């Protein structure tokens, strides 16, 4: 089956509102040999499973719900439907054609009030060395310093590399390394290649120009749409972007795999039989055609042995549990995309750039353009006199399609998602699977972890290093030679050993 789907995007405009995922960085590596002009291109997910686009059901446009909190943009509320492609950039903003006038939300014009506020100045560059006691930034919480607008929002890795592995190591990474990012190792690059290879088995990359943040976010939404279609059509999709909230803060992530295949049927039966709610759900679903969706992650290894031990598995578990939670909210329709857009400072009514619309429509003409309903069948058919109409010219309009696709993919809302998640370990050399671990989703464990993590992010406590039984982690840590926590841990061990010797207990120290 011809599946044309490509993900990934970036805007090389110096805007740091949205950081690149490892996959996007890998793409950039691949682009190394391109010209400067080519580097300004993005990759978009294209799907076109040919028969699928034809069978895409007509949209029944149910309005998305916006929160009542003030929006930093104004919807002009003009009536009207699609617009001629030639005038895409200058057309009036409009809700979808079938939207009821009562659903059209008007916001007060805050232009004057906002213009009276002091102009926002760009934040100072983050220090590349750890702040000292004299540094006033020390008094700010990590949340304010690193994850508050205009800084990028949280990523799922903030919680997995942080609290679930070593919080202090993550703090050092944020404060000591350039850009607050881990030093990219050869192993990481090798892992990215395996991920890319897997993705290409499902999607085909197509580069698309983006000029604005609205274009870029639209591309991400488009890739979600194509990912959902690919899942429904083939039973598997990869690299699905998700958004959600933790403690009121935006979190983004990319799920490695979604499929209809249960990773361990027997284990699932055991898990379901242990839960009354799940048992009832299972019974109810027996009468319906059940298409449960399972999340999976891919981890690459330099050796052919999968990791063992709770400490090694914990970050992966937390990562999958958090993906599960974010996707559940999207599946249930409770994610407020307009809140996401406000955090990213993106106007949902900003018209996509002409180049973007043209390129996306060239991939999916039937989706982005519709026939002019006023055009006479007898009138000339050349493009000058019978222009195509742009169906989705803004994010607000595209969100109708996102909601539609989510509804089709998750007909039972969050209950369409399985309660098992899994991780495949693959050998970095050739990408072959060397082991799989499956876990039941544990929302309580996730909640506890996030609660603890957020205490540190909000500055309510100092970052913690590893527990003494997890000190093996220090062996992989680039800050081990200069880590106060580790020093204290060594001193503590020495002190205990001396006490033992003094007490005549001997020991092996
Ligand atoms: S040396 Fe150990 S305790 Fe210190 S930051 Fe690294 S992993 Fe954490």
From TrEMBL:
It holds the Pfam family Exo5. It comes from Cephalotrichum gorgonifer. One of its GO terms (biological process) is interstrand cross-link repair. GO terms for cellular component: mitochondrion; nucleus. Residues 54-77 have a biased composition (Polar residues). This is Exonuclease V. Its cofactor is [4Fe-4S] cluster. Keywords: 4Fe-4S, Exonuclease, Hydrolase, Iron, Iron-sulfur, Metal-binding, Nuclease. Residues 54-102, 115-139 are annotated as: Disordered.
């Amino acid at each position: 089956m011809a599946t044309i789907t490509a993900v990934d995007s970036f805007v090389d405009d110096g805007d740091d509102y949205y950081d690149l995922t490892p996959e996007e960085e890998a793409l950039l590596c691949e682009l190394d040999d391109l010209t400067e002009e080519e580097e300004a291109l993005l990759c978009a997910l294209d799907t076109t499973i040919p028969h699928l686009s034809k069978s895409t059901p007509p949209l029944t446009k149910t309005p998305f719900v916006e929160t009542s909190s003030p929006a930093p943009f104004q919807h002009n509320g003009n009536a009207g439907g699609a617009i001629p492609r030639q005038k895409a950039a200058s057309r009036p903003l409009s809700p979808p054609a079938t939207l009821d006038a009562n659903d059209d939300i008007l916001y007060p014009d805050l232009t004057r009030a906002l213009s009276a506020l002091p102009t926002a100045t760009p934040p100072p560059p983050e220090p590349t060395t750890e702040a000292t006691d004299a540094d006033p930034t020390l008094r700010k919480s990590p949340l304010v310093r690193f994850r508050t607008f205009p800084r990028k929002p949280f990523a799922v890795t903030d919680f997995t590399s942080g609290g679930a592995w070593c919080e202090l190591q993550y703090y050092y990474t944020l404060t000591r390394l350039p850009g607050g990012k881990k030093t990219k190792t050869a192993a990481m690059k090798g892992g990215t290649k395996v991920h890319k290879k897997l993705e290409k088995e499902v999607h085909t990359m197509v580069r698309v120009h983006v000029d604005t943040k609205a274009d870029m976010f639209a591309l991400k939404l488009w890739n979600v749409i194509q990912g959902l279609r690919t899942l429904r059509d083939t039973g598997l999709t990869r690299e699905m972007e998700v958004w959600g909230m933790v403690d009121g803060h935006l979190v983004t992530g990319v799920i490695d795999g979604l499929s209809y295949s249960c990773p361990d049927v027997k284990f699932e039966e055991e898990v379901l039989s242990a839960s009354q709610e799940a048992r009832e759900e299972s019974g109810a679903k027996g009468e319906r055609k059940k298409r449960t969706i399972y999340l999976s992650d891919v981890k690459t290894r330099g050796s052919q042995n999968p990791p063992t031990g709770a400490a090694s598995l914990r970050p992966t578990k937390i990562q999958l549990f958090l993906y599960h939670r974010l996707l559940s909210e999207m599946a249930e329709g409770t994610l407020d995309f307009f809140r996401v857009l406000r955090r990213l400072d993106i106007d949902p009514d900003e018209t996509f750039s002409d180049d973007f619309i043209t390129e996306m429509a060239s991939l999916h003409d039937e989706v982005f353009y519709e026939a002019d309903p006023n055009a006479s069948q007898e009138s000339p058919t050349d493009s000058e006199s019978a222009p195509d109409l742009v169906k989705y010219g803004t994010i607000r309009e595209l969100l109708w399609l996102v909601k539609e696709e989510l509804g089709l993919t998750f007909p039972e809302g969050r209950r369409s998602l399985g309660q098992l998640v899994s991780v495949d370990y693959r050998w970095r050399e050739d990408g072959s699977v060397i082991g799989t671990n499956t876990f039941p989703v544990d929302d309580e464990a996730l909640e506890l972890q996030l609660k603890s993590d957020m205490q540190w992010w909000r500055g309510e406590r100092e970052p913690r290093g590893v527990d003494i039984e997890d000190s093996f982690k220090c062996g992989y840590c680039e800050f081990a030679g200069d880590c106060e926590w580790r020093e204290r841990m060594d001193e503590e061990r020495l002190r205990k050993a001396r006490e033992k010797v003094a007490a005549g207990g001997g020991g092996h120290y």
